[in-house]
């Protein structure tokens, strides 16, 4: 019971895909998750509350840095500090993989995510103008571990 972040193995990719579908309007399929997670540099992390999946993160270790490929909390559990809790687990997992930094890209218009990452201590290191389909800018964030 309670709240815990737990590694999710590639064989359970569909479990993360199901959470992703609840978090994003345009989500990735079970097959896309399975394909990504077959890559040995990719690690899955689930956030579980009272045996229910409420969040996910997918990480990729590149050299000595870890990229957050996707990250989300289901709508019903947002605004309760779950994002911060899951980021702590992401940082722990990245450190355990030997990473010295986390990075990610996020739309400048995604206010909740920008607030979360800035609140956690990420710094914006660059911008990709009009990067997304809706022409919004991508902001690249980095956090030294
Ligand atoms: C981004 C997301 C993970 C945040 O999760 P969360 O559990 O609601 O985050 P937390 O409750 O830990 O809140 C983190 C901070 O963001 C703030 N925040 C949350 N929602 C917000 C919103 N809609 N607008 C502005 N700030 C917001 C919180 O107030 C908190 O700020 P604080 O440090 O001042 O207390 C969640 O909204 C989500 O899954 N969104 C859809 C998927 C997504 O966009 N993922 C990121 C892609 S890179």
UniProtKB/TrEMBL annotation:
Q: Which InterPro entries match?
A: Acyl_CoA_acyltransferase, GNAT_dom, YpeA/RimI_acetyltransf
Q: Which UniProt keywords apply?
A: Acyltransferase, Transferase
The UniProt entry's coiled-coil ranges are none
Q: Which Gene3D superfamilies match?
A: 3.40.630.30
Q: Name one Pfam family in it.
A: Acetyltransf_1
Is Transmembrane helix given among the entry's keywords?
no
Gene Ontology molecular function terms on file: acyltransferase activity, transferring groups other than amino-acyl groups
What positions does the domain N-acetyltransferase occupy? Answer: 3-145
For this protein, the record's PANTHER family field holds: ACETYLTRANSFERASE, ACETYLTRANSFERASE YPEA
The name of this protein is N-acetyltransferase domain-containing protein
User: Organism source for this protein?
Assistant: hydrothermal vent metagenome
């Amino acid at each position: 019971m309670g709240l815990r972040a737990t590694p999710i193995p590639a064989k359970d990719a569909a479990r993360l895909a199901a959470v992703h579908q609840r978090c994003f309007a345009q989500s990735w399929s079970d097959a896309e998750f399975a394909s990504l997670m077959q890559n040995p540099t990719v690690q899955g992390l689930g956030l579980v509350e009272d045996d229910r999946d409420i969040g996910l993160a997918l990480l990729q270790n590149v050299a000595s840095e870890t990229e957050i490929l996707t990250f989300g909390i289901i709508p019903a559990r947002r605004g309760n500090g779950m994002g911060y809790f899951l980021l702590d687990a992401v940082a722990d997992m990245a450190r355990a993989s030997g990473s010295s930094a986390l990075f990610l890209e996020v739309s400048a218009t995604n206010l909740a995510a920008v607030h979360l990452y800035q609140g956690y201590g990420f710094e914006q290191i660059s911008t990709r103008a009009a990067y997304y389909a809706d022409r919004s800018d991508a902001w690249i964030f980095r956090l030294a571990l």
